[in-house]
């Protein structure tokens, strides 16, 4: 996934829903880079020395890298990949990635009496702002969908994505309870879930299954065996499926050339992309576009 951020307008009607979204995004923070970046909005910018206080909740998911978090209530806590950081309104805090690792972060900012009630009823607390959930593909899918819907801002999107945030909060809570009962999560399950996230985050690059195996510290044969055991398909085929599904979406944009779609998805050859697309869907990219973009005739 490419770096993305969106800060959203909120109407009085949106606030009356009880839970509303203020911002969302995804960022890849390289090694030894300034954090946050200088182009951060002024109302959200902070430095490590001073920290900051927000007037909202934020849920942040770290899928790669390590770092440090500190808040007035919790004190300093080390951040590992697979951690949720939950920020609370009117709570001083600061956090940053490790200079030697950088990190990947998904986030969503939200507010409303529904969130306040969850905290009041002790589902989430300022004393425990770090929730270790591991590598969960479904959590990344929530963030990706929220980002996609905020990108278009279709009519009625605020209540819709607020519902997704509530679902996201419920999933995080359920996973944390599950992990408390099963502290020693199966190593293979963790490997497969991390691999799925890496594939999803790099669907628009030329990354290979062999590279992912190397990143996970495994030989490709080991990685392929474990991945296929859990998913039923090889990691290479899983990545191809993700690229084909992304291609289907991109082909619905009428002004996007097929060769641009191929390039955006990390294919070196438009011919190979078209051949692969037809093998997997039964249609060439051009025919797929014609079929699914053809206007419906009226009666």
UniProtKB/TrEMBL annotation:
Residues 193-291 form the HTH araC/xylS-type domain. InterPro entries: AraC-bd (IPR003313), Homeodomain-like_sf (IPR009057), HTH-like (IPR037923), HTH_AraC (IPR018060), HTH_AraC-typ_CS (IPR018062), Tscrpt_reg_AraC-type_HTH (IPR020449). One of its GO terms (molecular function) is DNA-binding transcription factor activity. The keyword tRNA processing does not apply. Signal peptide: none annotated. The keyword Transcription regulation applies. Keywords: DNA-binding, Transcription, Transcription regulation. This is AraC-like ligand binding domain-containing protein. It comes from Parapedobacter koreensis.
